[in-house]
């Protein structure tokens, strides 16, 4: 800034020449300078006031806008606005191995109330009870006329119910958008899918979370936005699952059973193509968990993985296969099964006190001899028996991908004595699930390799470590075929499909110890086609009774086997397994010549 001198020399000299007072020039310049300084200060102050005014105006505008927004907004539950609570309703679909829909999301609404905005609470309560009969009118009136400012009435309503509430016309009844988990096939594969519910909730969104089955096991995957909505593809085949459920339900009713379960497994991949547990439920309307009594009485109980039972004589084939694998016997080795036989002070008997005498290992399986199997187990020894059963997966819960599977760990003897080895060899003293049994039989069916049950679709064989030799597995398959062709499972014969399998009938244990005299667990463990198995099928009935004869019959040969045969008859064509002529054993062929 250039300052003007108060006494400029040129003007002072000019003023003296003209006889004027030079001090007047100085006074004038001071006045001008003071006026300039005052104008500058005023402009600076006015600018500051303007900036401050704009700031206050903007602040009041923001506060006013926020207050207006809050005054007109719908109320939100406090938990929906907790720090960091971001509600994500998105959830991926679940499909079967062929892409058919098993579970998806569906747009719906929830109903809530703002009692302070209600015009006629009593009339609204009465109208709501007419639309939703499960509501209590007295409770609604109490809530509507009390101090509550917000309450949920129904978490899910149909479009028809929504319109009916609209027609009530009360401004205090409002709707919240929801994504509802929908299972379009109803009860089909209910125990596999499990069900879903709501987690964090607000009036504008609700978090859908899995509560059981695959929905809970794969919850993180299904809710992960990074998957871009890619559906979860399961190993189940929807058509096979439907056929299995229909046949098993009919068989359960026909055999007067309390419950039933079946497992169909691919022997080379471990894929579970169908798994059924009855009684079942609709995951769209999942029932409450039992708080008292026996858990197996609940339709939520999954018998395929949670049902840990002594499965009986279906275990005998494992003993025979191990004995052959160890070189202790072959299929034709003769073993004396005559009694009496005592182990650890306990008598080992046969079904209906039969005495088979000296018979081959193959006949021991065909006739289902306890003593013959027990004598092989004694030769095997407890340590080697444990190692073999552990390799088949009978010491841990099955890795099947639903949360309930972790609760199905086999029950083992506290002390594995010689008596334990004998009784376990024919299926008593060790309790396991039908899913464990399916994996064990798959190892025999595929030539001796362990497989892990899986719910996910596989694109190639997933066989693990070898658990028995190919020869032992082959001999075991021939024995299982003989059981159906000429033994205790003769009702399991299905023309063209050549089933091999083993029956098992075990007395049902009481909750407080001991066994029932008239209640059993009947199981048929099978594979087909027996000469080149593709699938293993396990059928188990809880407390079956076949009553067509003069006396009630409970053994698996009369109960579980016919049901399994009908199931194979229905599902084999769906699986693409064509009926064939069973190949003959070349050992029985003789050469002839003619002129």
Topology, please?
Blueprint: H1 9-17, H2 22-72, E1 94-95, E2 101-113, H3 121-131, H4 137-144, E3 151-157, H5 159-168, E4 173-182, H6 190-193, E5 195-201, E6 206-212, H7 213-217, H8 219-223, E7 232-233, H9 238-254, E8 259-266, E9 272-278, H10 316-325, E10 334-336, E11 342-343, E12 346-347, E13 358-360, H11 361-367, H12 370-380, H13 382-391, H14 418-425, H15 434-445, H16 470-486, E14 500-509, E15 515-528, E16 535-542, H17 560-571
Parallel strand pairs: 1-7
Antiparallel strand pairs: 1-2, 2-3, 2-4, 5-6, 8-9, 8-16, 10-13, 11-12, 14-15, 15-16
Helix pairs in contact: 3-4, 3-5, 9-17, 10-12, 10-16, 11-16, 12-14
Gap between N and C termini, in Å? 138 Å
Number of helical segments with 4 or more residues: 17
Q: Given the C-alpha coordinates, what overall shape results? A: elongated
Oligomer: single chain
Total number of domains:
3
Percentage of residues in helical conformation: 25-40%
Provide the CATH superfamily of the largest domain.
Answer: DD-peptidase/beta-lactamase superfamily
Proportion of residues in extended strands: 15-25%
Count all strands and give the number. Answer: 16
CATH fold annotation of the largest domain: Beta-lactamase
- Rg over alpha carbons: 40 Å
CATH architectural label of the largest domain: 3-Layer(aba) Sandwich
Structural class: alpha+beta
CATH class assignment of the largest domain: Alpha Beta
Q: Tell me the major beta sheet.
A: 5 strands, mixed
Mean pLDDT: 89
Uncertain segments of ≥5 residues (pLDDT<50)?
Answer: 77-85
């Amino acid at each position: 800034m250039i300052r003007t001198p108060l006494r400029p020399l040129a003007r002072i000299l000019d003023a003296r020449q003209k006889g004027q007072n030079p001090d007047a020039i100085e006074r004038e310049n001071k006045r001008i300078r003071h006026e300039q300084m005052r104008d500058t200060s005023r402009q600076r102050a006015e600018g500051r006031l303007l900036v401050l005014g704009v700031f206050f105006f903007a602040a009041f505008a923001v506060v006013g806008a926020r207050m207006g927004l809050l005054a007109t907004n719908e109320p939100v539950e406090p938990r929906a606005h907790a720090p960091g609570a971001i509600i994500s309703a998105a959830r991926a679909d679940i499909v079967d191995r062929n892409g058919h829909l098993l579970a998806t999301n569906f747009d719906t609404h929830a109903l809530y109330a703002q009692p302070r905005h209600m015009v006629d609470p009593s009339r609204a309560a009465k109208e709501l009870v007419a639309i939703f009969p499960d509501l209590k009118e007295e409770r609604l009136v109490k809530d509507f006329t009390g101090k509550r400012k917000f309450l949920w009435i129904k978490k899910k309503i149909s479009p028809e119910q929504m319109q009916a509430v609209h027609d009530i016309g009360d401004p205090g009844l409002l709707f919240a958008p929801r994504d509802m988990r929908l299972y379009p096939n109803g009860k089909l594969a209910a125990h596999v899918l499990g069900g879903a519910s709501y987690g964090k909730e607000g009036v504008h969104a609700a978090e859908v979370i899995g509560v059981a089955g695959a929905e809970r096991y794969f919850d993180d995957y299904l809710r992960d936005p990074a998957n871009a909505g890619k559906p979860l593809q399961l190993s189940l085949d929807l058509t096979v699952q439907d056929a299995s459920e229909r046949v098993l339900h009919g068989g359960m009713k026909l055999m007067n059973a309390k419950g039933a379960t079946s497992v169909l497994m691919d022997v080379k991949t471990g894929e579970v193509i169908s798994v059924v547990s009855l009684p079942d439920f609709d995951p769209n309307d999942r029932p409450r968990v039992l708080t008292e009594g026996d858990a197996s009485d609940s339709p939520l109980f999954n018998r395929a993985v949670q049902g840990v039972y002594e499965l009986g004589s279906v275990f005998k084939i494992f003993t025979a296969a191990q004995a052959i694998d160890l070189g202790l016997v072959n299929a034709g080795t003769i073993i004396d099964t005559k009694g009496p036989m005592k182990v650890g002070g306990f008598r080992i008997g046969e079904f209906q006190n039969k005495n088979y005498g000296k018979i081959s290992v193959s006949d021991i399986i065909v006739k289902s001899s306890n003593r013959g199997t027990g004598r092989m187990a004694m030769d095997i020894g407890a340590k080697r028996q444990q190692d073999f059963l552990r390799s088949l997966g009978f010491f841990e819960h099955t890795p099947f991908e639903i949360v309930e599977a972790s609760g199905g760990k086999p029950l083992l003897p506290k002390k594995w004595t010689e008596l334990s080895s004998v009784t376990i060899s024919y299926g008593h003293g060790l309790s396991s699930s039908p899913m464990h049994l399916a994996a064990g039989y798959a190892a025999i069916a595929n030539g001796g390799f362990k497989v892990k049950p899986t719910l996910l679709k596989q694109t190639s064989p997933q066989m693990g470590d070898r658990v028995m030799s190919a020869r032992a597995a082959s001999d075991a398959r021939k024995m299982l075929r003989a059981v159906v062709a000429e033994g205790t499972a003769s009702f399991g014969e299905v023309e063209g499909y050549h089933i091999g399998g083993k029956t098992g009938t075990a007395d049902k244990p009481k909750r407080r110890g001991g066994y029932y005299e008239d209640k059993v667990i009947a199981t048929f463990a099978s594979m087909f086609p027996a000469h080149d198995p593709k699938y293993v099928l396990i059928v188990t009935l809880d407390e079956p009774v076949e009553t067509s004869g003069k006396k009630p019959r409970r053994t698996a040969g009369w109960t579980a086997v016919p049901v399994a045969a009908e199931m194979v008859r229905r599902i084999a064509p769906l699986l693409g397994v064509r009926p064939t002529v069973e190949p003959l054993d070349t050992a029985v062929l003789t050469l002839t010549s003619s002129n």
